[in-house]
Design brief:
Number of helices: 6
Strand content: 25-35%
Helix content: 10-25%
Shape: elongated
Number of domains: 1
Mean pLDDT: 83
Largest sheet: 11 strands, mixed
Low-confidence stretches: none
């Protein structure tokens, strides 16, 4: 395991454009994307539901009891005779362990839309002049530098919002992108129990200002380079999951940055989801299966036309202000340690 501080593409937040949702605009994109989340089997996703379950493992076969050639005649002999019997009985009792459970709905595992949106927003903020949290001069907490900011907004008003908040939403400002929960594709997703170390709190003194802390895909190790003891059990899932992303009045630049934040087009995992990322869990590769525009006329993109559209928007968005360098650094960190396989 390792984490690295990756700098934002911009040092300070800048005003974005507040776009009304009351009326669809012809020069912007309104519709939805059909998304496939391919979760790596070596790095499954563990999005905890907050629930735990006590699981009893089956009894182990008792050890053979030796046949003594004599009848015990003293307490010492009796104790030595009974000891293997007691140990055999104890060995047959089931052991118990606590397991953290993943989020489920209707008998299947799901990724909540809020978890997907939060993971994508972090990458989006790294590539835009977004608001952020900065370290205080004293103490380990980080002070928020969050929207809204006082001043004149590009779209009018007495406050302004950064590009990320204009798109994903903020206090007193509705977002224009919505993530539906991702459900497992029937017969294409699987769950398992994973043993992981106890989570630890990274040293805030090693977190630099204007940076995000990103984890690679390697197992967790201590300061001496030794693998940490795996003492906790958690449910995790891998395979294929599908969802939709709804968009209202999205600009070409916002779409390109969204595709970059999702890591679309990357052969290695392009985004990290869920918990236990410090131990290499939560790697996903994202594919866009279809795009449906609903205004000013219905247009559906699939296949080659869809791939070219995504690639052009992503390339144009990353050409600005050193974004491409940050994007490559982000992808190199979150895919480091990947085994190169998918289910």
């Amino acid at each position: 395991m390792g984490y690295r501080n990756v700098r934002r593409a911009y040092e300070e937040p800048e005003p974005g454009e507040v776009v009304s949702q009351n009326r669809y605009q012809e020069d912007r994109w309104t519709g939805f994307l059909e998304v496939l989340w391919r979760v790596d089997k070596h790095h499954p996703v563990a999005i905890g539901s907050g629930a735990i379950r006590l699981i009893e493992e089956g009894p182990k076969p008792p050890p053979p009891i030796p046949q003594l050639p004599f009848r015990p005649r003293s307490p010492g002999q009796m104790a030595r005779t009974l000891r293997p019997m007691v140990e055999a009985e104890a060995a047959q009792k089931p052991t118990k362990k606590v397991v953290s459970l993943v989020v489920t709905r209707g008998g299947g595992a799901v990724f909540p839309g809020s978890s997907l949106k939060g993971a994508v927003r972090q990458a989006f903020e790294m590539l835009t002049p977004a608001c952020y949290h900065e370290k205080q001069p004293r103490g380990r907490k980080r002070a928020p530098v969050r929207c809204p900011f006082p001043g004149t907004q590009a779209g009018g008003g007495e406050q302004w919002f950064c590009p990320a908040c204009c798109f994903f939403g903020s206090q007193s400002l509705g977002g224009r992108v919505t993530f539906q929960e991702a459900r497992g594709v029937p017969n294409e997703w699987f769950h398992e129990l994973r043993t992981v170390p106890t989570a630890w709190e990274p040293d805030d003194e090693k977190v630099e200002d204007h940076c995000y802390r990103l984890y690679d895909l390697k197992p967790d190790r201590d300061d001496r380079g030794q693998l940490r003891e795996e003492v906790e059990e958690t449910q995790a899932v891998f395979g294929n999951f599908r969802s939709k992303v709804s968009l209202v009045n999205a600009s070409d630049e916002e779409l390109g940055l969204l595709f970059a934040a999702l890591g679309v087009g990357e052969r290695s995992p392009g985004i990290r989801l869920g918990g236990k990322k410090f131990h290499g869990l939560g790697a996903a590769r994202v594919e866009i299966l279809g795009a449906q525009k609903i205004y000013p006329r219905a247009v559906r993109l699939e296949g080659r036309a869809l791939e070219d559209w995504i690639a052009d928007l992503k390339r144009q968005a990353l050409e600005k202000d050193g974004r491409l360098e940050r994007y490559r650094e982000l992808q190199s960190v979150i895919s480091e340690g990947w085994k190169g396989e998918h289910p």
